[in-house]
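Regression check, zinc ion case 267:
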Amino acid sequence: MSLDRTRRLLVSIHDVGPKFGPQVDQLADRLAERLDGLRFAMLVVPNHWGEAPLAGDPAYQAKLRRWSDAGVEMFAHGWYHRDDSCHRGTLARFKARRMTAGEGEFLGLGRNEAVRRMADGRKLIEDITGRPVAGFVAPAWLYGDGARQALVEANFALAEDHMTVWRPATGAVVAKGPVITWASRSGPRIASSLIAARLARVGLQRQRVVRIAVHPGDTRVPRLLDSIDGALASFRNRVVSRYADLLKAPCLPAAKDGGGLVRSTQV
Ligand SMILES: [Zn+2]
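Current build output:
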């Protein structure tokens, strides 16, 4: 298979932290094997569900530092991950409950609280790794108005949601297209995410940048792990890239995007 230098593959592990330590280890080993090294990003949750404070876990901090030293990009990924806001409005309530199983922490936060959690998460991770975070990704990729305003103020280099990666400071979009991800929390969601991933493997071939995101829960379902392997193999002829590479876009010639074929929901 010849390398297509005009197209990129970005891979990330979500929900990294002491809460899902063994599952994250398993995913990191698996990806490293299939990508010929630690060529992926990690999305770090500072205190998942208020149950697993990274600040109080020196052993996990040391592990994060080793991964970072080895080249893994670290994103701040919320603070608690869980949505503990009181949502006003039908659409907001629907999104919060149905799309995320209550994991959209930044959907209902006001600007000030969002700024505070973003800054705290960033400082914690940067103090641990000794280098700047790559950016911020809201839990479940869901941003309320307060979170979007806060992102501009927090001055992260990058942010992403289901459909785009952008520079918060300018709003400039640096990658478009749906992220390929899997849902593990129920049989029907597993089945629909397997179908979505299969469609994406074909439908996103023309996309300039393809993103693949895996979650700790994926490790419980062998069919999901097989599907992840299949997706990685389908896009393995691309340049496996860092998110930061998107900020140097001119090195990749423009290609016609495949468009938004597949969208699935995961946290
Ligand atoms: Zn998450």
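Comparison notes: The longest helix spans residues 111-129. The first strand starts at residue 4 and ends at 16. No diff flagged against the previous build.
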